[in-house]
């Protein structure tokens, strides 16, 4: 039974790999600020649905990979993803009972929280100036959440990942 259980994990990790590929695609400078944070959306979904499998440790590992891919200070995204994964896992039942549009608002707020954590951490290391435009991607994350949720729910039921 354990071997069958572990064979299903490839779908989850494949979704993270696809999110990392989408995250690493470069956008034109004019629309760079609207770039969604794919890895955050996928992490929030899997922590929400299967918190016993994808949890704070998974968020930390994904954050380290993002730090390595983006060339940012090592551990900054790991910290922010760990905090976001903890918040989602802690309020898991309350989050699941919300309507999809309410979840989208919460995802936007979580995305803003992630941006603030990353900015605050980077500000301590490097002298940065706050640019409010960087929060526009949080709105895009909220807009994309219903589609990501429905797509991954379909995949979840197709492969029976409960």
From TrEMBL:
Keyword terms, alphabetized: Cell inner membrane, Cell membrane, Cell shape, Membrane, Transmembrane, Transmembrane helix
Highest taxon of the lineage: Bacteria
Topology class, membrane: Multi-pass membrane protein
Record InterPro entries: Cell_shape_determining_MreD, MreD_proteobac
Gene Ontology cellular-component annotations: plasma membrane
Cell membrane is among the record's keywords: yes
Localization in the cell: Cell inner membrane; Cell membrane
GO biological process: regulation of cell shape
Task of the protein: Involved in formation of the rod shape of the cell. May also contribute to regulation of formation of penicillin-binding proteins.
Stored NCBIfam families: PRK11060.1, shape_MreD
Family, per entry: Belongs to the MreD family.
Protein name per the record: Rod shape-determining protein MreD
């Amino acid at each position: 039974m354990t071997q069958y259980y572990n064979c299903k994990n490839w779908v989850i990790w494949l979704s993270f790999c696809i999110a990392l590929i989408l995250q690493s695609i470069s956008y034109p400078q004019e629309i760079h600020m609207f770039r969604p944070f794919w890895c955050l959306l996928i992490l929030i979904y899997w922590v929400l649905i299967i918190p016993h499998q994808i949890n704070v440790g998974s968020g930390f590992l994904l954050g380290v990979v993002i730090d390595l891919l983006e060339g940012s200070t090592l551990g900054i995204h790991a910290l922010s993803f760990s905090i976001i994964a903890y918040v989602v896992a802690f309020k898991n039942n309350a989050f699941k009972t919300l309507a999809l549009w309410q979840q989208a608002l919460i995802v936007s707020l979580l995305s803003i929280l992630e941006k603030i954590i990353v900015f605050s951490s980077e500000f301590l290391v490097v002298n940065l100036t706050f640019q409010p435009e960087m929060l526009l991607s949080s709105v895009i994350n909220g807009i994309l959440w219903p589609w990501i949720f429905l797509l991954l729910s379909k995949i979840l039921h197709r492969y029976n990942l409960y």
